[in-house]
Design brief:
- The chain has an 8-stranded parallel barrel, surrounded by 7 helices.
- The radius of gyration is 22 Å and the shape is globular.
- It has 11 helices and 13 strands.
- The model has no long low-confidence stretch (mean pLDDT 97).
- It is 29% helix and 13% strand.
- By secondary structure, the chain is an alpha/beta fold.
- Bound molecules: flavin mononucleotide.
- Flavin mononucleotide binds at residues 60-63, 94-95, 137, 226, 228-229, 277, 321, 357-360, 380-383.
- It comes from Phlebiopsis gigantea (strain 11061_1 CR5-6).
Length: 420
């Protein structure tokens, strides 16, 4: 019997999208593509809880400074939707603030009120029609809140630089309502934070919980908690930004108390995959621990302890980044410069899925990190902005056939030609 010649629709959707089967970014069957006998790790699925990620090329969270009072707009639909239809295994929506004063910039996205649910749901629903999983990074900017967008601070040509990072009230900022563990500013041209009291701490914990409930309504597939880059949870764990003398400061256990409290609360409320992004080091000078045993800044040894606690709480994956909490940081930036941190953490916790991020641009480089046990997933940011079709280019470079969107098939005939 000949098959009916129908452009099959995605089922259960109130408009027409062609169904991609298998999903965009999935390896095609060996029966048709002998070159797919050995599947590169990049294109092997990964199952976490009941969720199967179709490949291991994931989109890093990337602030767009383009939200309308915390609401996603059509920019986000086009930007994230474009990635959803080009073969990545997962998309993490940008740092999304759980309270308005927890935004990095006035134009950050947010989930502090119900009106922010619908614009996100539209994007998530679209990603799902393209067979792509999508989650969100829940965040509080801590002492780095109320700042201006990078291109407002310094244009690309470097011909115009603002005198400060601070977003004033007249620039829609809230410089008098910036909080952190201690009243220590990140740098001279950043806001002066106020040390959080117990009430502030309880309110932020509640706000994370409320945002999780909104994530459920939106249908996000996972949540990532932002505990990196010098934002609130990183502020608490690092001795550089946390000088508290109460139960939330001082010893390593005390500095971890608030971040772990938030993450435990989220874990209890959220059954789907839960990830945490950490900074593995502050990139400050000298040893992490002084000769007297005192922790001098946040570094890999404390990160390992932190990750152990995260695993105990039931966190499903740790995304290993670095930096952002020390204004004089010197980072030896180069290809995969953060991969050694991921590898050290993976070695300490072999059963815990780990993601590596940071200057991963080349498919063979990316594949190496998965092959040599550095990480289980590669997360890309800028390379995917330059090259949203990167998963298809990676398939081409690694010599396997991977499904593009049917609408784009004619652009990928080289990848789609069966080879012995
Ligand atoms: C435009 C842009 C926005 C970013 N926004 C976030 C963010 O919202 N949350 C976060 O954890 N990291 C953010 N980052 C950092 C990236 O997620 C990533 O860790 C970093 O760019 C290094 O990866 P790459 O070399 O692949 O770009 C951002 C990076 C860029 C380029």
């Amino acid at each position: 019997m000949p098959q009916p010649s129908i452009n099959t629709p995605v089922p259960g959707v109130d408009t027409f999208y062609p169904l991609n089967d298998p999903a965009i970014g999935s390896i095609l069957p060996t029966s048709a593509y002998p070159q797919n006998t050995k599947i590169p790790k990049l294109f092997q699925p990964l199952t976490i809880r009941d969720t199967t990620f179709k490949n291991r090329i994931w989109v890093a969270p990337m602030c767009q400074y383009s939200s309308d009072n915390g609401h996603a707009t059509d920019w986000h639909l086009v930007h994230l939707g474009g990635l959803a239809s080009r073969g990545v295994g997962s998309i993490c929506v940008e740092a999304t603030a759980v309270v308005p004063e927890g935004r990095i910039s006035p134009e950050d996205s947010g989930l502090w009120q119900d009106s922010q649910i619908a614009p996100f749901k539209r994007i998530v629903d679209f990603a799902h029609t393209q067979g792509t999983l999508i989650g969100v990074q829940l965040a509080h900017a801590g002492r780095k809140a109320s700042t201006i967008a990078p291109w407002v601070h310094l244009n690309a040509a470097k011909t115009r630089r603002a005198s400060t990072w601070l977003a004033e009230k007249s620039e829609n900022g809230w410089p008098d309502d910036v909080t952190g563990p201690s009243a220590i500013p990140f740098a001279d041209d950043y806001p002066q934070p106020r040390a959080m009291d117990d009430k502030d701490i309880a309110q932020v914990e509640e706000a994370f919980h409320a945002a999780v409930e909104r994530c459920k309504q939106i249908g996000f597939d996972f949540i990532e908690i932002h505990a990196a880059h010098g934002y609130l949870l990183h502020n608490f764990v690092s001795p550089l930004s946390n000088h508290r003398t109460d139960q939330y400061g001082g010893s390593l256990e005390n500095r971890l108390r608030f971040p772990l409290k938030v993450i435990e609360r989220v874990r209890k409320a959220w059954e789907k995959p839960l990830f945490v992004r950490i900074s593995a080091t502050d990139w400050a000078e000298g040893p992490e621990q002084g000769e007297n045993g005192e922790w001098r800044y946040w570094g890999l040894e404390q990160s390992k302890f932190f990750v152990g606690e995260l695993q105990t709480l039931g966190v499903d994956l740790v995304d290993v980044s670095s930096g952002g909490n020390y204004s004089k940081q010197t980072i030896p930036v180069g290809p995969g410069y953060q991969a050694p941190f991921a590898k050290a953490i993976k070695q300490a916790y072999p059963d815990l899925p780990i993601s590596t991020v940071g200057l991963i641009t080349d498919p063979k480089q990316a594949e190496t990190y998965l092959e040599d046990g550095t990480a289980d997933v590669v997360t890309l940011a800028r390379e995917l902005l330059r090259s949203p079709h990167w998963p298809m280019y990676a398939a081409q470079a690694l010599g396997v056939a991977v499904k593009p969107a049917s609408q784009y098939e004619r652009a990928w005939l080289a990848v789609l030609t069966p080879k012995e």
